[in-house]
Amino acid sequence: MSIDAFDLQKCQKVWNRLAEDPNLEENLLAVLKKLRKDHELSEASLIVAQALLHKKALRKFPPEMVSKMLFLEEALEQATAWPLAQHRAQMLNECAKEGPFLDLGCGLGSDSLALAHYREVMAYDLDKQRLNCLVFNSQALNLPVSCFNDDYLKAELPQAGAIFADPARRVKSGKRVLAAEEAIPPLSEIMKLSGRLQLPTAVKLAPSFDKSQLKLYPGASLEFVGTHKECREAVLWLNLPTPAFCQASLLQKDGTWFMERLPAQAENDQVETGPLKSDSYLYELEPVLLRAGFLKIMACKLKAHLFDPQVSWLISESFEPTPLAEAFKITEVGHFTVKKLQKRLQELEIGILEIKKRNSAVEPDILRRKLHLTEGSSKSATVFITRQMGKPTFMLAERL
Question: Does this model's pTM top 0.85?
Fold first, then answer.
């Protein structure tokens, strides 16, 4: 049933109250039975579903927004997290011409709502239900968004100042596609549209987009956007007035943004390799920095080297605290076999173990079951499983 068949204003107060119940999931049947006294079954089901979605939405949106909003499950999963949407809206506003924003393929409209804090937004999508959600949410938040249920490649678009496009990366079967040309519509079609309108354009891509492919798009810039331990998305920037760049944008734990650019075609020089030994320090860089090609720069900043050209963990003789990497002090290096690692962990009475791997076929969950840690021990360690010049290697380390 379509969401516009319900009195959403009436239902909203009920689902907001239910969303505050920490035991909602465990008591769904009882809650639904109670709701049936005052609501039809379809309406009661909507209220429960929205209450559950509002709990999930708190992972992406601030509470003061969530309490006013309406959600669809699949659309919420695909929606841009609010801090990332705000970051992109600010960047796009800084380079935009006069006129409203075009949000092409807006979905639930997280980006539309962020863009609308700067100027009017014209949002296009083929999914009527998602547009209904965006209409409801933009009105609830008092933001200037106009919605159009139309194919933006065929529609006569209004004059605008900039474009944000988010091509669908999930086909009808539910399978997620990664290649930009397999998205709907393909990246090449969006580029044609952007070129014809000659507007600054941000195109959201999968975070796995290969930086080396940037050379296929002359004049385009590429941004990788991430949060702690995760590269969340890639963004192709078109028709910008600045020289082409590759940018790493990282939302740090303290809520501030680290942003740094390299020239788009900057040479990614080989990082020197060196020794791997105990009492040295290992740095695990934030993934967004690796995706954007900052390994060489970070190696220089940390006075560090690689121990193997195929493994991106950096090794240094000295410790330099940085919010851009997790740091560990290596206490032991050895040839990796399950038997040898198990023996050392038992000798050290390790009861809590963090397992990390690179360039190794080891499955951490399977390995953990084989290691037989010391039951009841509070001693902890991190083990890195990898290969050094083809040889299976493990490192025991303390997290700093």
Answer: yes
